[in-house]
Amino acid sequence: MSGECILCGKCLEVCPLLRATGREELGPRAKADLCRILSEDPNLLSETDVAKLVGFCLGCGRCREVCSQGVDVPALVAGLRGAHPDFKAWLWKTWLMQAKNVWSPGSAAAKLFPEQLVPEKFGPMLKMLAGLKGGPGLEPCLEVAKYPDTYRGRKMLLFAGCTANFVQTRWLSTALKLLDGLGVDVLPDDFKCCGSGLKAAGFADESSSMAAHNVRVWRDAGHPPIVTFCASCHAGLQAYEGCFESLKEQEMWQNMLLSLSSVLLDTPFVLSHNMPETLAYHQPCHTRGDDSDHVLLNDAFKDRMVGATTKQCCGFGGVMRLAAPGLTDPVNQQCWDALAGADVVITGCSACVTQLAATAPDGVKVGHWLELIK
């Protein structure tokens, strides 16, 4: 962090965990103070106590955005997680690093596992796995009326992310179809995971290795724009540092990251007769600046959009979903309270789709907005 916590309390106003539980000891200010105390006396708490306490952070980053002192509480927590790993952190690391081999068959198997036979410690993991594939998918109801020439002939890379590459391949297919319609020349790539989930869990070395690899892929391709369609991946890529040849290259990287929805903002869509009666949009915690996903969808659906979250977190929480699932449940419930009344909930984050699909009320469908496009 670039400064020290001055106990101003701004972070308390935006923390979804504090809002849902009412427990200030779980808020960012308490975590910042804990990190300060442990830096002065590392032996003050036992390994077990520290490992338990660092599990109580969703990693949403909202506190970091409002801190006038530049205190990055999620990064502080990640540092403690790295210094005090436990079984659940190892399980999370394995799940992320073996995504290609585990996610698809794991998701299918998790849906079939009888709930009464699920060991308590594995329950949250199985719920996440079950949510990876969502339900049967959303019925497409949007069709491009006419592709503009804004990006025709441009060379770009597409960073699809682990979920789209290994589980939700329909997202990837639709994204490629849209870019082809725009006349974009999508370059071949060898991207790895963005590494943000590993970084938040305290596995800095593994995350840094992935970042360095992804930057090399971009550099070897000639520094073209990189299109993303997952808010968490986009935020993870934006946070890269220490793997560039110069500050100028790092700034170029930041400027070359484009969300797919921002590329599509000038593209008109036509609604089909089978569109849902009511939709709601969940804004991911990791959306930065203007939310082009929401702008695109609001313009397309207009009065059919009955609501949108702005300050509610889905409760995914990364490794916290394993470390303290009972604390993420009220966060998730507040999110669903804000989305009440919708038949379909759409979002632009793979983690949010996973969590919301796994916890959706009966009769409510959840999916990525790409699923709505023919």
UniProtKB/TrEMBL annotation:
<dbReference type="InterPro" id="IPR017896">
    <property type="entry name" value="4Fe4S_Fe-S-bd"/>
</dbReference>
<dbReference type="Pfam" id="PF13183">
    <property type="entry name" value="Fer4_8"/>
</dbReference>
<dbReference type="InterPro" id="IPR017900">
    <property type="entry name" value="4Fe4S_Fe_S_CS"/>
</dbReference>
<dbReference type="InterPro" id="IPR004017">
    <property type="entry name" value="Cys_rich_dom"/>
</dbReference>
<keyword id="KW-0479">Metal-binding</keyword>
<dbReference type="Pfam" id="PF02754">
    <property type="entry name" value="CCG"/>
</dbReference>
<protein>
    <submittedName>
        <fullName>Glycolate oxidase</fullName>
    </submittedName>
</protein>
<feature type="domain" description="4Fe-4S ferredoxin-type">
    <location>
        <begin position="1"/>
        <end position="26"/>
    </location>
</feature>
<keyword id="KW-0677">Repeat</keyword>
<keyword id="KW-0004">4Fe-4S</keyword>
<keyword id="KW-0408">Iron</keyword>
<dbReference type="InterPro" id="IPR009051">
    <property type="entry name" value="Helical_ferredxn"/>
</dbReference>
<keyword id="KW-0411">Iron-sulfur</keyword>
